[in-house]
Amino acid sequence: MDWLEVHRGDAPLIVSLPHTGFDLPPELADAFVSPWLATRDADWWIDRLYDFARDLGATTIRTRLSRSVIDVNRDPSGASLYPGQFTTGLCPTETFDGEALYAGASPTAAEIAHRRTVWFDPYHAALTDEIDRLRGQHKRVVLYDAHSIRSVVPSLFEGVLPNLNIGTNGDVSCDPDLTRAVEAACDAGPFSRVTNGRFRGGWITRHYGEPDEGVHAIQMELACRGYMDDPAEAPTSATWPSPYRLEQAAPMRAVLTDVLTACLTFARAGSPS
Fold it and tell me: Strand order in 59-63's β-sheet?
C-alpha cells in the first residue's frame, strides 16, 4: 500500500498524520471540481514540520491520500464529532468554506463503504497494530494526533484561531498529567494556546484514548500562521498553500520538540526503571 507510510520506532510515542496527504487516486481524480479544491484543506507541511519525531524514536503513521477521498479522522458511522456545528464528514462533499467538492453526484453509500474498506480500515489497522506493539514494550503509550488548519475559517470558528490547540476530549482521552505537561511545553514558547476549545480531539483521539488501558491520546491542531504564510483572506490557487520554509518554521518546531519530549517523559514515567 504505497499510500500508507508507517515508520516504526521503539519509543512509547506514536505520531499520527491523518491529513497531510494530497494524492488523489486516478479513478477518482476527475470526480472532483479540481485537484486544488480537493486538496486545499490538507494539513499542509505537517509531515515536514514533525520530521524530527523519528529522531526521538517515535513511530509515525501517515496517509498520502487527500482527506477529500476519505477522512480517517472521522467517525466511520457518520456521526458528527461536533453536533450542532459545521464540520466535514467521512467522505467530504464540500470544503471548509462550503464549496462543493464534486463536479457531479456525491459518493453513494456503496462508494463510501468501498473507500472505507480500501483506505480507512488499513490506516486504522496500522494504528491498532502499532499501539499493540508498543504496549507490549511499555506500560504507557502516547498517541499524538498532529493537525493544522488555516488561522481564519469563519464557517468553523469565529475570529482568529490560537496558535496551539490541544484536544483531549475534556481529559477523557488522556491522563490530566499529560495535558498539563503538554500545556507547560506550549506556554514556555512564544505562541498562544488553548485546551479543548473549538478543537477537542477528532475520532482518532476519542476512539483510541484509553488511559486506564495505558493508551493516552492527545490532538494538536496548529494554526498555520505559526509556521507558514497564512493569508487572512479566502485562499486562491495563487496564494494557497504557501511554501514550507524551514527557517520560518523553526520557532514552532522548537516548541513542538518540547511538546513531544514532554509526551515521552510522561509515557516513560509510567514504566519501571
Answer: 4-7, 59-63, 13-17, 141-149, 215-223, 164-167, 193-195
How far, in Å, are 26, 61, 68, 161 from residue 158 at the CA level? 37, 31, 24, 8
Q: Give the HSE-up count for residue 221: Cα atoms under 13 Å, Cβ half-sphere.
A: 21
**Using CA atoms, how far apart are residues 150 and 156, in angstroms rounded to an integer?**
10
Instruction: Map 208-265 to HEC letters.
Output: HCEHHHCEEEEEEEEEHHHCCCCCCCCCCCCCCCCCCCHHHHHHHHHHHHHHHHHHHH
pTM surpassing 0.90?
Answer: yes
Set of cell numbers at residue 79: 456521526
In this model, does residue 136 exceed pLDDT 60? yes
Amino acid 271: pLDDT = 61
pLDDT for 86 equals 73
Q: Could you tell me which of 47, 23, 215, 17 has the C-alpha nearest to residue 123?
A: 17
Q: What is the pLDDT of residue 273?
A: 37
d(CA 171, CA 136): 24
pLDDT of residue 164: 98
The answer to whether the CB of 78 falls within 8 A of the CB of 62 is: no
